[in-house]
Every structure is written in C-alpha cells, then in structure tokens.
Amino acid sequence: MKALVYQGVESLKFHTDYAAPIASDDNVLVRVHYCGICGSDMHAYLGHDARRPAPLILGHEVAGIVEGGANGAYNGKRVTVNPLVSCGDCFHCQKDEQNLCENRAIISMPPREGGFGEGGFADYITIPARNLIEVPDNVPLDKASLCEPLACGFHAVKKAKHITDINNALVLGGGAIGMGAALALLAHQVKNVTLFEPNPLRFEFIKKHCGADMTILSNINEALQYDAVIDAVGFEQSRQTASKMVRAGGVIAHIGLGSATGGLDIRRITLQEITFIGTYTYNVQDFQETAEAIFSGKLGALDWHSVTPLAEGAEAFDAIKTGKVANPKVILQP
User: Fold this and answer.
1) How many helices (H) and strands (E) does the chain have?
2) Which of 46, 57, 145, 327 has minimal Cβ neighbours within 10 Å of its Cβ?
3) What share of the chain is helix, strand, coil (3-state, %, to 5)?
4) Is the pLDDT of residue 257 over 90?
5) CA-CA distances (angstroms) from residue 228 to 166, 243, 253?
6) What global pTM score does this model have?
C-alpha cells in the first residue's frame, strides 16, 4: 500500500509498497480517503514527541470506506473514525470519560508506547468497529475527516459551559482546533465569538471564509475581558494573554500543547476565582455530537481546509512548519 512514513526529525518518506494492516473479527479495515495533519503529527515530525518514534505512519484524522473485517458487517460503509480506542471497563470509561481511559490507545502511536498502531497517512488502517461513525451520502468524506479536530474544540466548549454562562468568548489560535472551538461556540448559541490569529496569511484566509460569523483579529487588546478564553495554542504567551483577558469568575479552557510551562497568572486566577481547565480530546458522546453537527450543517460550510496528495505530504509538512499555509487544516489524500 501507499504510505507516508516518518523516518526521523523533519524526515518523511513516501512508500508505494508498504505492508498493509490486516483486518480481524474485532478490527475493521478502512480504506483511507482523507487524513488531516494534526498538531501532534507536527510535534512528532519536529522530534518533540518521544511516544512516536521513527519509523512510523502518523495521522489520526481519518475518513474512508470500510473494506473488510468484522465478518464483512461494515463493508462499503462510508465512515469517519474516532482514533481513540478505550477499554470500556475502567473507572473513567464507566463515567463516559473515554478520553481519560487508563488503557486508552490511539492510531499513529506504536503499541509499545501505549498506542494502537500505524496511523492514517496510508491507504489503510485497522480500527475497532465501535470507533466508526457512518457518514451520510450527502456529506463529502474530506469534510467528515474534520470530525476529530472539531471534536477537540467541541469538548472544550462543553466543559467551559459547565463552569459559567458564556455570552462572549475569545479563541486564541486559528488552526483547526481553534476553528473548531469557535464554530462549537457558535453552535452552542454564544452570541459574540472572537478569534485571534496573528499569522497574516492565515488571518486573511479565515477572515474571508468565516468573518461573517465571528470577529477575526490579527492584533489583540489585552484590556478587553471575556467570559471564556479558549487557548488552542498552549504556549507561555497565549496562557499569559488568557490570564489577562478572562473576566473575574470566568473560565480558561486550555487545549493547546505548544509548551508545558509558564504564562499563567496564578495570583489573578486565585483572587478573581477564574477556573482553568485542561481539555484533552473528547469522549465518545462528544465525537458523535460533533459528527452530527457536521452532517446537519451546524458547524458551517467547513470550506477552510485544503487537500494535498499523500505523495506530496513531505512538502505539506514543510510548508506548515515554515508558516506558508493559509488554511487552518491540510488534509492528505492517498
């Protein structure tokens, strides 16, 4: 099969004869039609993720068509894939917190690192049938592949809304996670949504495609206050901005994994009773609700991604690294 294989720091090799995975009674074989490039894929590509050692097929934002496994029960179904495989039995799974499962695994990480195996930058993946959501015929599979990154923002918004009423919100970062959070806020009837994206190329693109639905800024006035700040960047500077711009009694929902430390104003968070929540991926219900929101159009036109042939995947990774990509999401197509 064709596969884009991570070879080491900033090194990807396109194969045309890579060994394909094998379906089983438990795991279906999905022919990948689209797989998005995630920030975690970039972390691995840049050598910042020891859990994803080379050689490895990255990619976990998958949509495609089932071609085998589970005794053929799912063959021919158009699906989007929840890449997080949970055990179903542990304390967190029993509380519908599958994203915190003690035994969770994900495609695009090797089993020895707690992963499920090779990822979606290839012709095929295998995944348990319970991780599939069928895609209606009228929904293009490239848009269906956005379900995974959009579910991250959807989950963060739901957690923030449990903390406080949100009438206005600020999203830091205009990548796919930030876009997903902004669109989820709109879908949850938040009236005033502002998205901050400092990259001029991406700012102009987002303003053109989503400017009618939300306020898009390339510069930010840190004197303003918001009920909720969604940090989809996760660097010291973005956490510092979030600490300043959330109102007293408000909430910071932190999705980004840019850096591990620094930026939070703990004194202000304490004295103003600001809630800081870390948000990691999504549970099964979040993923299903996100898929339904995509299928029904509640998350908008979803016309802000680009599609690149898998054979040109190495060039796509390099373009993202150097800030030359305007689209919030680049999707690879085998």
Assistant:
1) 10, 18
2) 46
3) 30, 30, 40
4) no
5) 6, 11, 7
6) 0.95
